[in-house]
C-alpha cells in the first residue's frame, strides 16, 4: 500500500491524540527556539553597536567636574570584571533575538492553538498576530524615546559632590523593563478587542469602565515611569487613547452583530423574548391497548 494511502485523514475539527499534540508542541517550540538562536547569533556581530545604542540616553561624564550649567547631573559608564563585557554581549544579543523573532514564535503559538478554534476565530487570531507585533515594537520604541528624559530625572536625586557610576547592566535592565512594560501596555486595546470579538465583554460595558480604566492607566504609568510628570503623561495619553479606540471598535462590532442577529447581543441582565401564547391541547390519543379503553390514560 502506498505510504500516502496509509496516512490518516485529518480531523476537520482539529482533534488529535495527546501524543500528536505533544509532538506538534515539540516541533513548534523547536522552530521558535531556532529562530531566536539564529537571530541571536547574527546580533552577536552587532552587539557593540546595539550596546552603544542602548546606553546613548545616559548623559556621560568625560571628566568628574563635567556638569550641565543648569545643574543636571552626568554619570560614568562602567563594566566591572573581566567577563562582564562578554556576558553583556550575550544578554544584549538574546534580547534582540527574542524581540526580532517575535513574529515567528507568535505565529507558532497561533499554529498550535488554531486547530481548536473555529474558522472565524482563526481569522481573528491572524489579525491579532499581525497587529500585536507592531504594537509591542512601537511601545518598546516609545520607552526608548522616554529614557533620555527619564534618566536625568533619576540622576538629579544624587547627593552633591557624589560621582554616579552606572553599569551597562543597569542601563540594559531598565531599558528592558521599560520596553517590556510599555510594549504590553500598548497591547491593552488589542486584548479588549479580542475579548469583545470572542463575545466575552460588550462595547457598552467597556465604555462603562472608562473611569476606572483612566485611573488604572494613570497608576500604572506612575509606577512604571520615573518620578517626573511628563514621562507619566507621555505614557498615559497614548494608552488611554488606544483604550477608547478599542472601545469604539467594540461598539461598532456590537452594532454589526445586533444588525445581523437581534438576539446576539443581549445584556447580562436581559433575556431573550419568550413566546407565551397559549396553544390548544389535543384530545387523548388512541393507542389501541385492550382492556383499558384504548386510551393512553390509565383511568
TrEMBL record:
Pfam families documented for this protein: TatC (PF00902)
Keywords: Cell membrane, Membrane, Protein transport, Translocation, Transmembrane, Transmembrane helix, Transport
Region span, Disordered: 262-299
Record's bilayer topology term: Multi-pass membrane protein
Source organism, top-level taxon: Bacteria
Localization per record: Cell membrane; Membrane
Transmembrane segments: 29-47, 86-107, 127-147, 174-197, 209-227, 233-252
InterPro entries (UniProt xref): TatC
PANTHER family named among the record's database cross-references: SEC-INDEPENDENT PROTEIN TRANSLOCASE PROTEIN TATC (PTHR30371), SEC-INDEPENDENT PROTEIN TRANSLOCASE PROTEIN TATC, CHLOROPLASTIC-RELATED (PTHR30371:SF0)
Role played: Part of the twin-arginine translocation (Tat) system that transports large folded proteins containing a characteristic twin-arginine motif in their signal peptide across membranes. Together with TatB, TatC is part of a receptor directly interacting with Tat signal peptides.
Binding partners and assembly: The Tat system comprises two distinct complexes: a TatABC complex, containing multiple copies of TatA, TatB and TatC subunits, and a separate TatA complex, containing only TatA subunits. Substrates initially bind to the TatABC complex, which probably triggers association of the separate TatA complex to form the active translocon.
Family: Belongs to the TatC family.
The protein's name in its UniProt record: Sec-independent protein translocase protein TatC
Species assigned in the record: Streptomyces cheonanensis
Amino acid at each position: 500500500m502506498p505510504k500516502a494511502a496509509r496516512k490518516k485523514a485529518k480531523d476537520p475539527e482539529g482533534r488529535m491524540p495527546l501524543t500528536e499534540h505533544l509532538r506538534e508542541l515539540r516541533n513548534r517550540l523547536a522552530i521558535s527556539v531556532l529562530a531566536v538562536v539564529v537571530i541571536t547569533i547574527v546580533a552577536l556581530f552587532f552587539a557593540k553597536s546595539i550596546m552603544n545604542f542602548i546606553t546613548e540616553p545616559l548623559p556621560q561624564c568625560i571628566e568628574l567636574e563635567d556638569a550641565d550649567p543648569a545643574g543636571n547631573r552626568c554619570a560614568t559608564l562602567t563594566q566591572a570584571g573581566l567577563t562582564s563585557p562578554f556576558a553583556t554581549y550575550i544578554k544584549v544579543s538574546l534580547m534582540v533575538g527574542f524581540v526580532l523573532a517575535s513574529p515567528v514564535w507568535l505565529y507558532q503559538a497561533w499554529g498550535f492553538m488554531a486547530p481548536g478554534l473555529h474558522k472565524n476565530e482563526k481569522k481573528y487570531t491572524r489579525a491579532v498576530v499581525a497587529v500585536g507585533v507592531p504594537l509591542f515594537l512601537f511601545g518598546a520604541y516609545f520607552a526608548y524615546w522616554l529614557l533620555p528624559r527619564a534618566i536625568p530625572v533619576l540622576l538629579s536625586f544624587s547627593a552633591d559632590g557624589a560621582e554616579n557610576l552606572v553599569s551597562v547592566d543597569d542601563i540594559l535592565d531598565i531599558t528592558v523593563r521599560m520596553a517590556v512594560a510599555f510594549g504590553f501596555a500598548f497591547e491593552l486595546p488589542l486584548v479588549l478587542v479580542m475579548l469583545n470579538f470572542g463575545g466575552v465583554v460588550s462595547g457598552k460595558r467597556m465604555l462603562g469602565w472608562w473611569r476606572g480604566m483612566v485611573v488604572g492607566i494613570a497608576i500604572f504609568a506612575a509606577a512604571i515611569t520615573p518620578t517626573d510628570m511628563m514621562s507619566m503623561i507621555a505614557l498615559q495619553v497614548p494608552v488611554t487613547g488606544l483604550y477608547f479606540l478599542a472601545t469604539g471598535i467594540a461598539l461598532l462590532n456590537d452594532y454589526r452583530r445586533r444588525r445581523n442577529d437581534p438576539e446576539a447581543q443581549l445584556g447580562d441582565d436581559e433575556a431573550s423574548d419568550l413566546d407565551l401564547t397559549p396553544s390548544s391541547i389535543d384530545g387523548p390519543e388512541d393507542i389501541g391497548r385492550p382492556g383499558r379503553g384504548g386510551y393512553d390514560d390509565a383511568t
